Amino acid sequence: MSGLTLPDLDDTTGDIPIPKLLIQIPVENAIKHGLLPKNTPGTLKVSVAHSNGSCEISITDDGIGRKEAGNRNLKGTGRGLKIMDSLISYANEEGNDYFSYSIEDLPGAEATDTGTIVKILIKRQ
């Protein structure tokens, strides 16, 4: 599987390959469904945090949020998330469970300004 790698923090278990689409899909969704429909400038933030040998990649936008995108009929096809699920399933074969993700709505000042955060967790075994 080609992609990025997460260098091991203590150099004992090597690198874990990170499929590029695990980051590209949520970034693309944030732009397409959250930020582009927004009437004002928006922000997209990608951050990486390490803790206890694990890594969390967060993709955060201050766009219109999933509920408002649904109200505007901007849901999309859902293929991106299906691809992410397939990639994670493939990468986690053999019971490794290295990868998981979650999607959360973020409350904003305006009802139509909530934003979204996707958290991709990469665990060390």
- Helical region count? 3
Mean pLDDT: 81
Most strands sheet: 4 strands, antiparallel
Low-pLDDT regions = 8-13
C-alpha end-to-end distance: 19 Å
Structural class by SSE content: alpha+beta
What helical percentage do the residues reach? 25-40%
The rough form would be described as globular
Output the strand order for the largest sheet. Answer: 3-4-6-5
Strand residue percentage: 25-35%
Instruction: Write down the Rg.
Output: 16 Å
- Number-wise, the strands total 6
Order of helices and strands: EEHEEHHEE
Task: Characterise this structure.
- The chain is an alpha+beta fold.
- 28% of the residues lie in helices and 30% in strands.
- It contains 3 helices and 6 strands; from the N terminus they run ββαββααββ.
- The chain has helices spanning 21-35, 65-71, 79-91, and strands at 3-6, 16-19, 44-51, 54-61, 99-105, 116-122.
- The protein has a 4-stranded antiparallel beta sheet.
- Helix 1 runs antiparallel to helix 3 (79-91).
- It is globular.
- The protein starts with a strand and ends with a strand.
- The model is unreliable at 8-13 (pLDDT under 50).
